[in-house]
## 1
Amino acid sequence: MGMKKSLLAACVLSGAAAAHADVSAAPGYCNTTYEVTITNLTLAQVLSPPLVVSHAPGVHLYAVGEPASEGLEALAEGGDTSVLTAALLDDPAVCAAETGADVVPPGHSLRVLVKGSRQSVFSFATMLVNTNDAFAAADGVAAPLARQAVTRMVPAYDAGSELNDESCAHVPGPACGGAGTGADDGEGFVHVHRGIHNVGDLAADEYDWRNPAARVEIRRVR
């Protein structure tokens, strides 16, 4: 992975697994449970265990047009949520950060329970694992009112941190089983992903997709 500017100042931290934020510093803030359901809308792209975050407005997992943080780079290249989770949980504006228990195959859904408040916004990110550095994500979705659900259709972005060589040596998903990093830097900023283009080992007629890549539904459960 190449050197990146960090969007989150705390992204120099690493190594913590996904976990609940310590809510003792904010009594009564993170006491509502939300169910976040991620559905894979692609034909042949498996989604890595998704990271779901509840937080105050002003916290961002990514910014289109800006370089990926160290944590986003790790997630988009190898599905590793630990670096981004550690950075997020060091921020007092973050309520909780949870990683799903499993991958999300095409046409399937996964539910993640996360604590938050009625003033929280929610963000999520997951890697399209049969790619170099594609991730589907939503940023700052407002908490639903009452028991109503909030639904967002989300595209796949390119983290811009790894060259899209589509080489099995650098693609970690079941199509290849390679390393989750490439030897060369990518475009240098987050942008909408261009898909698979038959430049390497991945067949576009099988692994390409059209956006949206995923659907996210947020519902308050208790």
## 2
Amino acid sequence: MMSKRLKFMLKKELLQTLRDPRMRFVILIVPIFQTLVFGYAVTTDVKKVDTAIVDLAKTQQSRAITQQFISSGIFIPQYENSYAAAWEAMDQSQIQAMILINQQGQMQFVTDGSRGLSAGVTAGYAAAILSRNQQPAITIESRAWYNPLLESRNFYVPGVIAMMVMVITLILSSMAVVREKEIGTMEQIMVTPMKRWEFIVGKLLPFGAIGMVNVLLVTAVAVFWFNIPLQGSLPLLMLAAVLYLMNTLGMGLLISTVSRTQQQAMLSAFFVIFPAALLSGFAFPIANMPKVIRFFTLFNPMRYMMTILRDLFLKGNDLTILWPNYLAMFLLGTALLTTATLRFKKTG
């Protein structure tokens, strides 16, 4: 049965966190807003490509090829009179691609490499169109499983859950203890009958509840607003969220015990969040990273949460497949909470 001291501590933290209208806005509204921004703005889909088409051959075959590009609906023709005009338009970023056919009928497809990933996707579309002009002995049909339309929104939005939970809970918990130090109430708390574990649980549990609410809010936006199907089990998603919160809250508590001011805690939290996001696979595949970097990702809880989220949303995998990720988060979370608790005892 929960002790009265713990109940009072939980009530105090919740009131202190939610009494400010601006804080309520940050906790409840900002995650929804940022999910909408990610869903609409963060995309690798290429739908409209301004393309210069220079056909000097003017043969039936060259016209048929250029017409295939135009009829795809992806390449928007911007006709130029010469190679020089097309290259100048490319230099001035007025177009993103060029289809150049010389008088001998030789074709060259050029993309703007300064646009990074979009250039690769554009080149892939062009290769698919050109492959139709060949008659191979074997007919090849490609099919994408789990995300048939290859919509980047379905890939990125589930990952926002891991991002938002870490940002909010890590920042809140990183200032939990140091705030008491700054306002001078830590000494008063230490001389009360309250046990250390009650103090830690009372500090972290409200932030954990806020984190779970954020998970439900972002999941609701993903499913009902963006129509991203949750193929897997919602209870498994909640279990993953609990294990993930062990890591973010443990990390925040550790930062709070080593920081002297709330400003130091805030800066330290952002110092952790940025590399954690980069090494999570949210935007860049971990398999493409150097071996040394891939080794460090093993100690990043966001990596495992990102894998679980995408597998639950897109593949519908269950615990028989995802258990290594759950186990890794449990071990990392236990280690972080234990270290933070021991550190708290030293600083108490």
